[in-house]
């Protein structure tokens, strides 16, 4: 993917600004390849949560490559969203959608924690629905800013973690109980620190 493909619908009024943003995004793509470099872009609590999500993906699939890909996709999306926000690239409508996405994601996180804390409350269909709605909102936010490849990353992350069967295994399979506890403790911390 060339850096020229990074932003698809940028107005031509400020070509140097557009070029600079594309270069920053391209450089981020090149530097976000190692865990140590990622820590400069993502706070410690979120990094810990991502580690737990990686551990779950690896344990559930038994495939380290799949787990690495889904986490790498998530990190790239988080970093690119942060860059776009810091450079004030979103329109008023996109910011409203982003706020709706943030609320939906926070609701989903609270639901995940609640299902963990209150036995026999897990609702696979409901949680999968929340994940799909979150994905759709995020796709609307990034529609004019990121490439099809980045949009595919969003789909990959949400289809992986929003898969109903996978969610059922996460909540019902005893082999995930310890990891689920650690992940929910970390997710609670993310919520307390208002990082969503």
From TrEMBL:
Protein origin, superkingdom: Eukaryota
InterPro entries for this protein: TNFAIP8-like, TNFAIP8_sf
Organism: Salpingoeca rosetta (strain ATCC 50818 / BSB-021)
Annotated protein name in UniProt: Uncharacterized protein
Gene Ontology cellular component list: cytoplasm
Gene Ontology biological process terms from the UniProt entry: regulation of apoptotic process
